[in-house]
């Protein structure tokens, strides 16, 4: 067995977000990986409290969460983390309040809406992530807990651009979902899934040569590029696919099963 560990993005890769489905063929393929001795890990922008729909079907050996900023083992114990600094979180809260922007934070154990409750609620409903969703009109939860990610909704993209220019320690990724305006994931500029994977691999003495990764979006690019075998889903853009070793079919057409079968048939003899 050449490789030891496989990382899976969730939305658009392992999980059909719109209809809340993990295909049986994906579960079958992951079971086969485990039988052959592979570790199976999640690598997602989601926090743990928004993984319930997926965990009903699959348990993972490690969880690379919130775009690499929160890493847990299979028992949900923290392995490593990189929260946003308290001052920067305070700046985000003030910025969104002053400009009347939608704001939601992902903490280690919960997600809290601060501003624009109903637009943010509708976004979470679309993504099937209403579990552990709370509203904090006092906007104070961050004072007692570490925030790993902010989700900001704005009608004017320039507002975000100006704020990010003044905060080079942050990164903003546009979320491609239906929403009333522009929705951005905001997190530490030094964080991404590949960084979280590297933090996790230190604990098991693995390197990128040991890895296989599946993804479909721009936040998967670095892990697809660094993995020994990077697999892009069929629905990924040509740009994302250019960083992968090969493309499989889409999440709606047994993409995980087909990709794993190809790897096991072609690379793992």
UniProtKB/TrEMBL annotation:
Coiled coil: none annotated. Pfam families: Hydrolase_3 (PF08282). One of its GO terms (molecular function) is phosphatase activity. Keywords: Hydrolase. GO terms for cellular component: cytosol. PROSITE patterns: COF_2. InterPro entries: Cof, HAD-like_sf, HAD_sf. The keyword NADP does not apply. PANTHER family: PHOSPHATASE YKRA-RELATED, PHOSPHOSERINE PHOSPHATASE. This is HAD family hydrolase.
């Amino acid at each position: 067995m050449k490789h030891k560990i496989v990382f899976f993005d969730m939305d658009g890769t392992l999980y059909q977000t719109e209809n809340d489905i993990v295909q049986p063929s994906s579960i079958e393929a992951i079971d086969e990986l485990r039988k052959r001795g592979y570790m199976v890990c999640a690598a997602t922008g989601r926090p743990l409290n928004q993984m319930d729909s997926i965990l009903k079907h699959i348990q993972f050996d490690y969880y690379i969460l919130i775009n690499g900023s929160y890493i847990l083992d299979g028992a949900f114990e923290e392995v490593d983390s990189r929260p946003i600094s308290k001052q920067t979180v305070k700046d985000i809260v003030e910025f969104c309040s002053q400009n009347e922007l939608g704001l939601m934070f992902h903490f280690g154990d919960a997600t809290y809406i601060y501003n624009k409750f109903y637009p943010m609620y509708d976004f979470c409903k679309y993504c099937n992530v209403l579990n552990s969703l709370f509203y904090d009109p006092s906007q104070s939860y961050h004072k007692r807990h570490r925030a790993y990610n902010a989700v900001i909704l704005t009608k004017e993209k320039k507002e975000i651009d100006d704020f990010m220019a003044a905060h080079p320690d942050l990164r903003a990724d546009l979320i491609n979902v239906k929403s009333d305006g522009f929705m951005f994931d905001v997190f530490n500029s030094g964080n991404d899934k590949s960084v979280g994977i590297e933090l996790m691999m230190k604990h098991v003495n693995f390197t990128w040569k040991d890895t296989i990764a599946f993804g479909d979006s721009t936040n998967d690019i670095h892990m697809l590029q660094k993995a020994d075998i990077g697999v892009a889903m069929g629905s990924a853009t040509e740009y994302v696919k250019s960083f992968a070793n090969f493309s499989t079919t889409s999440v709606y057409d047994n993409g995980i099963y087909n990709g794993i079968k190809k790897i096991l048939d072609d690379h793992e003899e």
